[in-house]
Design goal:
The protein is α/β, with parallel strands linked by helices. 41% of the residues lie in helices and 16% in strands. Helix 1 crosses helix 7.
């Protein structure tokens, strides 16, 4: 078992440029301290400098550590179901507190439009984005709430804050 009955685990998944990092940053900004963001790209590419591979311990172990430290945790990333589905299922099952998962469903055309505004736009081609894109790569068993591209960032953050109960919890200054 991991975390406490009070800790919240929030998983935000979706394709590249679907808004995952913006949602996670918005949740942290809105909530304040005592909310850890476990960002797949940052942890894997920058902190650990490892390749994306099935069974990698990076995301799950970091989330577990933060939950056990009493932090609320937002796990965000593409987190393909064939590579990370088992880890996410185990993490969700092991978490003692409320767990909520969201899938940001953005069509490929919108992915291209959003990607063009990112600092890495010149480094990642349309071909690469097309190779990475998986339409509605949902976890099995209706485990995720699907949020469409028509949901504005603020609206998505408000919804997740309410759904998870974070809106009613005090941030702990650490």
């Amino acid at each position: 078992m991991v975390g406490t009955e009070e800790t919240r685990l929030v998983v935000v998944r979706g394709n590249s440029a679907s808004g995952k990092s913006s949602v996670a940053a918005g949740l942290r900004e809105r909530f304040g301290r005592s909310l850890a963001v476990v960002a797949q790209d940052n942890l894997r590419r920058i902190v650990l400098r490892e390749h994306d591979r099935p069974g990698a311990a990076n995301i799950g172990q970091t989330a577990r550590y933060a939950l056990n430290a009493g932090l609320h945790v937002v796990v965000e990333g593409i987190l393909y179901t064939d590579r990370y589905g088992d880890m996410l299922t185990e993490l969700r099952a092991d978490h003692r507190g409320p767990t909520h998962s969201y899938y940001l469903d953005v069509p490929f055309g919108e992915t291209l439009t959003r990607h063009a505004t990112k600092p890495i736009a010149d480094d990642v081609s349309e071909t690469q984005l097309r190779d990475w894109y998986r339409a509605r790569d949902l976890l099995p068993g209706d485990a995720e709430t699907v949020i469409g591209a028509d949901s504005a960032l603020r609206e998505t953050i408000d919804r997740i804050m309410l759904d998870t109960g974070l809106v009613h919890l005090p941030a702990v200054d650490r």
